[in-house]
Amino acid sequence: MSWITEIARPDIQALAPYQHAVWEPGLVRLHANELPWRAAADGSEAGLNRYPEPHPQALAGRLALHYLVNADAVLPCRGSDEAIDLLTRCYARCGRDAVVITPPTFGMYALCARVQGAAVIEVPLRRESGYGVDVPALLKAVTSAVKLVYLCSPNNPTGNRIDRATVLALAGALAGRALLVIDEAYVEFSGAPSLSADLQALPGLVVLRTLSKAHGLAGARCGAVLADPQIIALLRRVIQPYAVTQLTIEAVFRALEPAALDEARARVSLVISERTRLAAALAARSTVRHVWPSAANFLLVEFADAGAALQRCHAAGLLVRDLRHLPSLGQSLRLSIGTAEQNDRLLQALP
Ligand SMILES: Cc1ncc(COP(=O)(O)O)c(C=O)c1O
């Protein structure tokens, strides 16, 4: 066992995995207490009367091809939300361990830690450097209680990317102490390559990917942990069997067909060009204080009066995200990039 699993909760290391029903799809299934007939409205390929594969290996293999890693380095899960939950439950002991987050950032890292009873240590991003990571402060914050350090790149809600050199330097500095988890939910919109290419060299690096954003499958709930096979094996002990539903497995296989991937790439390009158009149009307005550069499918925009902007959007039937409650974001709203027509409506509605 190496340090990447030695720092996990000892009770999880010792846990005997749940013995699920044997998976032999070629045989008649009289072993899982299922109904032998499909429901009338069942439009799935495999039949929803049957449990899906408990730990979907074929899906892991397909995701591995897509993300350019080995199949044993992939854990398919119910969105990256579940990945964050699994990592927290496997690594952070209640009342003893801690995670480091870099606010303003995605809320699930702190939420999962608090549900687990782990401490949350905040190392704020530096607004003055375009929400860059404060590397010295972060390294100082990593006490022996810290098991997970989360970075989000591109970051939600600020939209900026963390450069590869910073991530690699941090992963090196944290080796032997804590896992460095890079959430790449929006990486497809950034034009930058995924850090999954660095997994083999840096066993303490964990990359989170999702089908929710660039592939348009938020409703299907599918994400993936990409990590050293020892970490994947540990998380598999804790993930629920059948976590990824049959409908989702089938939807992901369809989304990774060549034609669907071409379409996804075209839509990502469209989002990027609309992002540029929206950013330029907003930056020209006197009611807008700042449009932060974005490598994601949203813009962080500071208004002179975010409350008024929010009200006008709502009156026009448009929902945008109010971020005024977050420290350091002041009068900010987060605007997801929609279709050209939706973005026009947004531009018309905003002051
Ligand atoms: C940075 C980040 N990570 C993860 C998620 C959750 O993604 P998923 O739909 O895969 O659970 C989101 C959702 O908005 C996000 O912004």
Describe the structure.
This protein is of the alpha/beta class and 351 residues long. The chain has 2 domains: 3-256, Aspartate Aminotransferase, domain 2, CATH 3.40.640; 259-349, Aspartate Aminotransferase, domain 1 (Alpha-Beta Complex), CATH 3.90.1150. Helices cover 36% and strands 15% of the residues. The chain is built from 12 helices and 11 strands. The strands form 2 sheets. Strands 1-7-6-5-4-2-3 form a 7-stranded mixed beta sheet, with helices on both faces. The protein has a 4-stranded antiparallel beta sheet with strand order 8-9-11-10. Helix 4 (79-91) runs parallel beside helix 5 (108-116). The termini are far apart.
Blueprint (SSEs and pairs):
Elements: H1 3-6, H2 10-13, H3 57-67, E1 74-77, H4 79-91, E2 98-101, H5 108-116, E3 119-122, H6 135-141, E4 146-152, H7 164-174, E5 179-183, E6 205-210, E7 223-226, H8 229-238, H9 246-255, H10 258-283, E8 288-291, E9 298-303, H11 306-315, E10 321-322, E11 332-336, H12 340-349
This protein binds pyridoxal-5'-phosphate (PLP).
